[in-house]
Design brief:
Elements lengths: L3 E2 L2 H21 L5 E7 L3 H16 L3 E7 L5 H12 L6 E4 L9 H7 L11 H8 L8 H12 L8 E5 L6 H10 L3 E5 L6 H5 L4 E4 L17 E4 L3 E2 L5 E2 L4 H4 L5 E2 L6 H26 L1
Parallel strand pairs: 1-11, 2-3, 2-4, 5-6, 5-7, 7-8, 8-11
Antiparallel strand pairs: 9-10
Helix pairs in contact: 1-10, 2-10, 6-7, 6-10
Family: Belongs to the tetrahydrofolate dehydrogenase/cyclohydrolase family.
Organism: Kerstersia gyiorum
Catalytic activity: (6R)-5,10-methenyltetrahydrofolate + H2O = (6R)-10-formyltetrahydrofolate + H(+); (6R)-5,10-methylene-5,6,7,8-tetrahydrofolate + NADP(+) = (6R)-5,10-methenyltetrahydrofolate + NADPH
């Protein structure tokens, strides 16, 4: 068996084009969707991510603001800037790029972002809404994975879904979204005993650990849908995922590549969340 490749790049392009149409409609109504991206420090990967996010916004017709600060910026100065963006009516989404320098508490920064502008979906209020099945914003990467599964017509109701990686950014919200669709979810972590015993049961396997090759073909159920969220740099300098693509693609029914899989979807869903935030502002103005 050779797995069908799930083309995240093509689906992301389609979603970005749809977001651009919605943005144009909002702009015509007097509200141009606005995203502010804040980068503190000189982390090379973060600089690439931020540049890609800003470029995607501009291409979709958004108002984008990119703010870069030195690594020695104080926490209070960052919080003051976030509060100013909260009060700016031209900004509908605020994204503070992680990781932050060690002297800044990321949790405090995230909790300072207004929940209605938290397009990453990381604020505790948005995490709580997601858990209760009434999300205001879905975190971008899990949201993108759900869009991919829907596009591939993957039947989730009653399916065995296994997630490897229990982070607040991917693993936990991924579990909530899959549960909401009726899947039976197992959430594994670094302390899970006999990981392969869990992954071999999965009809849908989502891997998000940041550990290249942690899942190999012999750990995959024949015909399973494998979603590789990992983005790592291999010894050869090339990008690779958390799944050993060569062996897994011989067993799985469908699989996402790295690059070109989940990565492009994350940025696409950031645009969708920002558009949704602007649409809510327009609705609120209509009620006023």
């Amino acid at each position: 068996m050779t797995a069908r490749i799930i083309n995240g790049s093509a689906l992301a392009q389609q979603i970005r084009e749809e977001a651009a149409v919605r943005a144009a409609s909002l702009t015509a109504a007097g509200i141009k969707p606005g995203l502010a991206v804040v980068l503190v420090g000189e982390d090379p990967a973060s600089q690439v991510y931020v540049r890609n996010k800003v470029a995607a916004c501009e291409k979709a017709g958004f108002h984008s603001v990119m703010e870069r600060y030195p690594a020695d910026l104080s926490q209070e100065a960052l919080l003051e800037r976030v509060r100013a963006l909260n009060a700016d009516p031209a900004i509908h989404g605020i994204l503070v790029q992680l990781p932050l320098p060690k002297h800044i508490d990321a949790h405090t920064v995230i909790e300072t972002i207004a929940p209605e502008k938290d397009v990453d979906g990381f604020h505790i209020a948005n995490a709580g809404l997601l858990m209760t099945g009434k999300p205001l914003f879905r975190p971008c990467t899990p949201y993108g994975v759900m869009k991919m599964l829907a596009h591939e017509n993957v039947a989730l109701r009653g399916a065995e879904a296994v997630i490897v990686g229990a982070s607040n950014i991917v693993g936990k919200p991924m579990a909530m979204l899959l549960l909401a669709e009726g899947a039976t979810v197992t959430l594994c972590n670094s302390k899970t005993r006999d990981l392969a015993a869990h992954t071999r049961r999965a009809d849908v396997l989502v891997v998000a650990t940041g550990r290249p090759g942690i899942v190999t073909g012999d750990m995959v159920k024949p015909g399973a849908v494998v979603i590789d969220v990992g983005i790592n740099r291999g010894a050869d300098g090339k990008l690779c995922g958390d799944v050993d693509f060569a062996s897994a693609s011989e067993v799985a029914g469908a699989i996402t590549p790295v690059p070109g899989g989940v990565g492009p979807m994350t940025i696409a869903m950031l645009l969708v969340n920002t558009v949704e935030a602007a649409e809510r502002q327009l609705q609120e103005q209509g009620k006023a």
